[in-house]
Design goal:
This protein is α/β, with parallel strands linked by helices. The protein has a domain of about 90 residues. Helix content is about 45%, strand content about 15%. The protein is built from 7 helices and 5 strands, in the order αβαβααβαβαβα. β4, α6 and β5 form a beta-alpha-beta unit. The longest helix has 15 residues. The radius of gyration is 16 Å and the shape is globular. The N and C termini lie far apart (about 35 Å).
Length: about 180
C-alpha cells in the first residue's frame, strides 16, 4: 500500500527508473493527479498510471478508500492523465459487494480512454485479512473469471485478472 504521489521526489524517481532502462508504471488512488502532476509525470518519463476505481457508486468507492470525494477525484485524475497523453488503466479490487459492477466499470474504462482494466482479487493478508469475509466465494470467483473472458471479446482494452492463478485453466476450458 501507500500513495506514491505523496513522495516529494517522485519525479526524480521516475527519471532515475528511466535512466536504468525501466518502464515506470505505478498504482495510485488518482486523487493527487492534477493537470500539472500528470504533465510532470509524463515529462519525467512515466509510462502509465494504474488508478483505483472499485465501484461505479461514489459512496461505495469512497467508503473502501476511506476518503470522501475519492471517487470524483480519481475520475478527474483519469481525465488529467488522458489530457496530458499519459496512459492509464483502471484497477478494481473485487469483493462480494462489487463483483456485479465489473462490466460497468470496464465500460467506464473504455469511455474514459483507459488502456486496460485490471481486476484484483482480494488476497486476505495485511489489511486484506480484515476483509476476508468480503471475498468472493469459489463459485462467484470462477463465474467472474468467465465473465472477464466474455467481456474481453467485446472491448478493445486489455482485461486482466490479478491474483487469479486459475484464470488460465478457465480460459483453456472455455476455448
Amino acid at each position: 500500500g501507500g500513495e506514491p504521489l505523496l513522495r516529494p521526489d517522485i519525479y526524480d524517481l521516475v527519471q532515475h527508473a528511466c535512466r536504468l532502462g525501466l518502464r515506470p508504471v505505478f498504482g495510485t488512488n488518482g486523487t493527487l493527479i492534477t493537470p500539472g502532476v500528470a504533465k510532470e509525470l509524463k515529462k519525467a518519463g512515466a509510462a502509465g498510471m494504474g488508478i483505483s476505481m472499485d465501484s461505479m457508486l461514489p459512496e461505495k468507492h469512497d467508503a473502501l478508500r476511506g476518503v470522501s470525494g475519492a471517487w470524483q477525484q480519481a475520475r478527474e485524475g483519469m481525465e488529467n492523465c488522458r489530457a496530458a497523453g499519459l496512459p492509464f488503466q483502471i484497477h478494481t479490487t473485487v469483493f462480494a459487494w462489487n463483483d456485479h459492477e465489473f462490466e460497468a466499470i470496464t465500460d467506464e474504462a473504455v469511455r474514459r480512454g483507459a488502456v486496460a482494466h485490471h481486476v484484483f482479487f482480494l488476497v486476505p493478508t495485511g489489511r486484506g485479512k480484515d476483509m476476508a469475509q468480503e471475498a468472493l466465494e469459489k463459485q462467484r470467483y470462477e463465474r467472474l473469471l468467465q465473465r472477464i473472458l466474455r467481456k474481453q471479446q467485446t472491448v478493445d482494452i486489455e482485461l486482466k485478472p490479478t491474483c487469479a492463478p486459475q484464470f488460465m485453466r478457465i480460459a483453456a476450458q472455455t476455448g
